[in-house]
Amino acid sequence: MNGDLLLYWMSRLGSGSQNKFRDALQELADGENHDSLQWVLHRKLSDLAHVDFFRNTKKWQVRPPILAGLAGQLGVAILCGARSAPLISSLEKAAQEIGSTVAVETPENCPSRLMVSGNAQQLAHIESATGISFVPEYSLHLLANVPPVSQKMRASGPEKGVINWQVNIFDLAALRWIPFTEKLSKPDALPKETAIELKSKYETKYCVTDGKGILRKLPKREAIYAAAFLCSVPLIEYDAHDQLISTPIAAPLPEVYTRIACLCSGELPNIVAGRLTYRNVPPVVGVTLSILAGQRSQALI
Amino acid sequence: MGFSLIILLLFAVSAIIAWALWRISTRATPNDQSPISEKKSIPSEPCGATVQTPCESVNRSALTVRPARKTDSDPVVPAVAASLDSEGKSSDQPLFPPTQVPLNTSLLKSGVEDKSNSMPVRDDFVQPAHIEAAVECSSVNTPANGTAKFEPEPSYAPQAEPPCVKSLESPRENVATPAQPGLQLEVNANECTPKNKPDFSSDHITSTLPDSGAGAIKLLQPTETLPAEKGSSIVKSPSTVSTDAEQQKENPFRDETLSSQAKSLEQHAGRIENLLQEAPKNPAVTLSTETVGEVGPTDDIVERDGGDTSSEATRRKPAERIIKLRPAGDQIPKRKVSPTSEGTPRERTPRVFEAPDISEFENPTPEVYNTPAWEEYRKWNRAICLLFLTNVRAGSRAMLSITPHLLATAWQRSEGDMFQPDEAVDKFARSAAKIYEREILRHAVKLKTLKTAAPDNVPLCAAFLGLAVLAAHEMQTDGESSANAYYLRLARLLHTGAESMEMPFNKDDYYTLWAYLQSWLHKYTGISLLLPDRNEAARFYVDLALAHVPLRKVDIDRLPSFFLFADYSPGEKPPLHQLDMALRQWCEGNRRFTKAGMDALSDERRSSVLSQVAHELEAWDGIAEDEKGQTVANIELLLEFPHRRPTLTFVAKCPNGFPRTFEIDGIRLQTSSGGWYQPIPVYASDGDRLQQGFNLECTSKLTTFALRRSRAQAIAFVAKDSQEHGSALTSHSGLLLGVKSAVMCVEALATSAEAYLTEACGQPCRATRPQNFPQGWVLFQGVTLRNLVAPPPGLETLAPDSAISIFFSGGLKVGNAYLEGAPPKISVSGSTAGLFIDDNAVYLDEDGFVVESHNYLTKGIHTVRVGARTRDIEIVVSDLAHKLTVHPNAPTSRRKRSFSTTIALPHGVLCVLGTGVGEVVYARLSHEEGLFFECNFQPMWAIAHGRRNPKVLCLQSAYPKAETLSYQLRRKIGAQKKIRRLATRWASAIRMTNHPRLRIFDSAGNVDTLLLQQSWNTFKDTSNRVARFIRNL
Questions:
Q1: Residues B394-414: what's their mean pLDDT?
Q2: pTM exceeding 0.80
Q3: Per-residue confidence (pLDDT) for residue B439, from 0 to 100
Q4: Contact B190/B220 with Cβ under 8 angstroms?
Q5: Contacts of residue B532, Cβ cutoff 8 Å, sequence gap at least 6
Q6: d(C-alpha B844, C-alpha B832), whole Å
Q7: What are the residues facing B631 on neighbouring strands?
Q8: How far B737 CA sits from the closest chain A CA (Å)?
Q9: SS3 of residue B679 by DSSP
Q10: Which residue, among A89, A140, A238, A300, would best test binding to B if mutated, counting the most B CBs under 10 Å from its CB?
Q11: How far apart are CA B753 and CA B745, in angstroms?
């Protein structure tokens, strides 16, 4: 599938519905598994800060083009957000003028990765010549507005109307979803401090039960980390020496955290030893992400 | 002398006896013997009036007297219809005795005709006829305005028959009563309704009077006089020249039970003839003539003349009753006559029109048709021809029944873009007006410029005439103009700026265009076009357009309710007889349309109405208001093939006014963009619902909304031009010729569907039962119709659509264009001969798509052409959306440059330092899991204070160096209190770590390395200098 064409199209529209996105995938990836491809592209476009996907409104919105300085690789910036063929041409031209380099990688089912190398002055010149904003250590910039999982959980009101829904719970030990009941008769019967998956014929939603058994609606990933926070179960491992942060495959970092971790290296996570591993994550980012996710990190102390 | 006296006496006695005998012989029957004679005298002022008679069942209070038209050349003539007694019999006595006024003054009131008391009109389609014999009576004293009203007289009211019938009803047979020349009795078919009148097999009755007498004829319907035998005439309405069988066919609502009433009305006809035969015998009664004028289709007023002198005489002798009846036969003027100055009628000879010149206009400069204005006009012309003229069922009559909604549909089908109806009208009118102003008016032959089919092989005048029809469609009373102001509306559409009430162009040329269009269609397509016969009536040229819109806007707005009633789905094309039947059921017992609409439905325009309704149904979007007052939108079906497995979903559009969130018993539908609600999966258990149809009523809003799926036994799926659903197949009202489609039908029809599709596709089509497909339904995939085959009964929804259409499916669409590199697949239905992209001949593959179309679809606008059909496609290069646009060389704002972040560190950390003097921050929040620091600088060090084991932690992988205390910094610290305070804090935080047990860590876990210590020492030095500097200030 041509990921560049997809991002060009999205950049031209600016925003749209999930249905449109799905149709575009069908158009570009004829004969492929569209469901899995849609999931993969959601993740990739979101993690590399190209597009924001909104669950509630089922819409997507392309982020403004930006040269995101990598927190884990000083002097390197990656092109995030919207793009077009003329914009890329101007970027390459400006980089060539100032003597910096533009590396282009084209992963499968993903837009090309454009990495610009240069010192702060060179990148500032490129910014001026192309109009693309340059933000050094973009991960730190993104951290400014990220609330902790525990705070989101407390801010979420009690969730009601779950009678007769199918219930699955997340087993933090086995790190998988296990069925709890086919039809929930009493909300009180739900286990406490657990991530809950509620399914009906038309909708699936995720919650976490607090210490009093009150259901609080959260996104799927946040629900797992909220439960892990309540149960004091470590899910994130941060290796300050190698600057690696890893999570179980079944419990990936919440989307925003994932984006921050990815923009430290400009790469998507790899699966290493059964865990999603993010490279070149500096300690201040790694520790902050761990604490934001409710993990009691003592990596630095 | 005595003898002389005797003779004189005898003479006097004989004279008295003779006078007495004469008086006896001429006196009317005593008043108490006739209900009429009981009536009081009426006012003496003469006035022309006709009395309209209801049928037997009509309420007598509804009787009205209507005035004859009063014009300068047509003085008012008092007229009263012939009367019958309460049993329907004519009185034995003369109608109006000289000394007795036949109408009670209480019955004949002056004043304007009271509509509320006029004959009640029932809105069925039965066409009763209405004889109205107008007998002019100079002694009838009615007001000057000529309006009088009958009211029932209690003394003779109880009978079923009207007490003083002034007009008669007659069976609807085209009867010419033989051997009674001189009297014409005609039937008005417009004003009677089946509820209060019987059905007739003819619109009028023609009878005659003896030549010695005279008759008065009331004509309430457009008629033409046909030559008849000498001494008589036959007045015929165009609608009545038909046999009974034809009339029965034309009028399916005719009720046979009305035949008995028809017979009774025949008796009425006979009675009035007898009545009028008696009239000449009475010396008090004289007969005068009446001239029937030429009236338009909607006129119902008889123009009279010839009664002016008698009128004057009547004024001088108010007590004298004179019945004036027009002599029939050759002496009857066939056309409107106007009095000369001497008072004698002057007959106008009918104008003979030359045959219109329908030859093709050959433009010496055909390249002019390629100008932008012509190109735009030609697009509209092609769109209109496609929908209204060439898309006509076999045996049907073509009609240019253009309405705003149909206009938008025509454009959408032709060009692919969807306009709002008002927007379509505006664009269309602008285009036609531009051509009219720039090309037609400036050309020597004016309108004849359009008399050609050269550019696109379709008549170029179709759009222009469509504009004329559109003006007729908009004829309804509004705040600015009356309902009849046709030319004013036409002028507005043409943007001529004139407020004239005259036709803005040459009438002959205008008619010639219609004739040319009719001729062209007949010659090249075999389709007939509705075109009224030409006459010299003033409104004939209005009627040319009006004939194509029998239903006006106000009636068309009511059609969606009918479609719901008949359970039609949008775009359905039911057979006309089914449509007719459904319309009949819908209208039965209810007034569904306006009077004009009901009239159109019940006269010879019925077939035109059905064509118009069929067009509206074809263009209907499924939105209507049902009987409960709910606003209903249609549910479509989507057929997709994820994992190569057919999957059905319900999808519904969110029309304007519908809620964005639609809750239905546990289902919550949402739409983000306002286009379509999210799809609802179709389960295996939904088979019955699909077959029976269903309604989903919104429960979340006070105002009721519902989504509806009509019942179906077979559903066709085609790839539509849809931005929302990409290349998914969408349910459609028929199968497109040459386009890859799919079909699902109930199992009971699987065999016939298989046979039909196999024959239509020219290859075997097999039914499949996919997993999780609705129970009781089968699916035919990969259906590509090649042959035009009529579907068997039950599978009408799979009828092939042979219209030539160009479809774009798939592709990445941006607005109305497509992204370069992702063009749509192009398919063509109807015909594939002569398929081009720009000037490149292209071909279709097995699936019906253009082979390698992307080679031709580069940046720019391209034209796909097949035969006369063209469709433009625009390809654009990638670009950023407006809100994402970047601005090279723009100055970067200071705010944009500012840096801030929030970092979290474990408990125990006191503060975070940056490299700059004054860059220090303490914890903002303390959660269970850690501390949060809000930094507007790059965090470099974290200081963890322990009284016994103080720690300094380097947060960066590269060891930083502290800012030096420069001159500028000193000045800042000295001048600005805030900076001095921050500098003091920064220095204090560093100096507090002066502890023998201080340990310096980095992120890699290294402790007290030389590099670390060197880095930290730079901070210590700077902090000492800052402290010293501040102390010395």
A1: 80
A2: no
A3: 84
A4: yes
A5: B540, B543, B544, B547
A6: 8
A7: B625, B705
A8: 24
A9: coil
A10: A300
A11: 8
